[in-house]
Amino acid sequence: MPAYWVARSKINDPVAYKRYTDEVPAIIAAFGGRVLARGGDFRILEGPEKFHRFVVIEFPSLDDAEACWRSDAYRSASAHRRAGAGEVELILVDGGDATT
Predict the structure, then answer these.
(1) Residues of the chain whose pLDDT is less than 70?
(2) What is the CA radius of gyration of the chain?
(3) How far apart (Å, rounded) are the C-alpha atoms in residues 11 and 75?
(4) What is the pLDDT of residue 17?
(5) How far apart are CA 78 and CA 75, in angstroms?
(6) pTM of this prediction?
(7) Total Cβ atoms within 10 A of residue 46
(8) For labelling alongside 78, which of 26, 61, 66, 69 has CA 20 to 30 A away?
């Protein structure tokens, strides 16, 4: 069953943040992930105005999504962001049965 990685971010240092975003697509692909939405136009209908970049990635399963996040490769790439280049809220959502 698919699962989704949903991230909201605020970029503080675009140059340093790009080091992170340059590495991440290959890492995501290695875990079967597929980017469904990244950046682009958005509308905040409710919630804080703090975040201005949104990403949705589909993985084959919740376990694959979490394994990607826990991987050494992702930890290494995210160090660029965690050093102050950006702030992120990241959740994993099980695709589940959308009818319930």
Answers:
(1) 98-100
(2) 14
(3) 18
(4) 93
(5) 5
(6) 0.87
(7) 4
(8) 61
